[in-house]
User: Fold these one by one.
Assistant:
Number 1:
Amino acid sequence: MDTQQKHLFFFVGRIASGKETQCVQLAEKLGYTVFSTGGKFREIVASGSLLGNRIKADYEKGLLMPSWVANYMLEEFLFNLAPERGAIFEGSGRDVEQAKVIDEVCTWLGRSYTVLNLDVSEDEVVKRSLLRGRDSTDKDESVIRMRLAEYNRLTKPAIEYFQQLGKCININGEQTPAEVHEEVMKKVAEVLK
């Protein structure tokens, strides 16, 4: 691996696990760029385009977007990321197919990476989602449960795949955001030394 290439970090975890918060904080500490799959999807939805309306309809049903859409955005970003730039990814690695794409592309590009799994129980997810009420789907427990089922069906096996590769570190996401950040920083320091 080219020693000039910056290490990449991928945050995964259930909905409302604090991925976005931790991505932003880590990016500020490291001076890295943040790539948010959810953020990209929200931009597309806000555009009111045909694709945006389709994404919105699926999201309101609690469904994840097709892997090919997320993979395309992820690959495009990785291919255009300068070697001396680091990046933190929020919401990538959502299923085994995408996990394999991440590993294959990063390996091919010679980029080292670590997956940080913010581990939060389903009950905590429901509680946090109902409290935050970011959008109408966060206020409907049945949609939250549907999204959790999608996570268990698709994302949990992706995390297991990363664990088998020795690329995944679990973080206790049920702590306060400050405590989670402290644990993230300790783990990141170990990876980067």
Note: The chain has a mean pLDDT of 91.
Number 2:
Amino acid sequence: SAIGFYGRQDNTPIDESFTAVTPEFSHKLCAQWEQAAYAAQSANTRVCTLRTGIVLAKQAGALAKMLPPFKLGLGGPIGSGEQGMSWIHIDDMVQLILFVLVTMELSGPINATAPYPVSNKEFSSQLGKVLGRPTFIPMPSLLLKLAMGEMADLLLYGQFVVPNKVLAQQFSFNYPTLPKALENLLT
């Protein structure tokens, strides 16, 4: 699954117990995925649905797509920049999956994000800082909507998702903060 399950949200932190979701496309799609997974649940079968945030990796995924404009000094916040970006370092993602597999107390939805989500504006600022590039050129919402249609909503709206279930079970993140994660990946 994905954190898109929560739909558009304001700046309030969201954990696995959050139920006031917005019934829009991303929520409906994730809910269908999770519903299909829960069909396998039984007295002998534990089901965990990882609600994955933006996975940051060196050579693939969202970060790789962001790097070219940022390296040219053309990167910046998207729209207002206030939307949440719930992310996780690839190494922590792998460790979290392994942790969930062996921690029998965990079941149901589990947020696979770092414990400190940031705004898009903060993400852009930190990425520019690590790259030694300016980040003052914003991507206008209208331009993004013209280019991407409804898919632009995935970038213009976000959530501040926190992984309370794994934290309660003492999972330890190697890269809990964005600066530490970006420095590891890009320097």
Note: The chain has a mean pLDDT of 92.
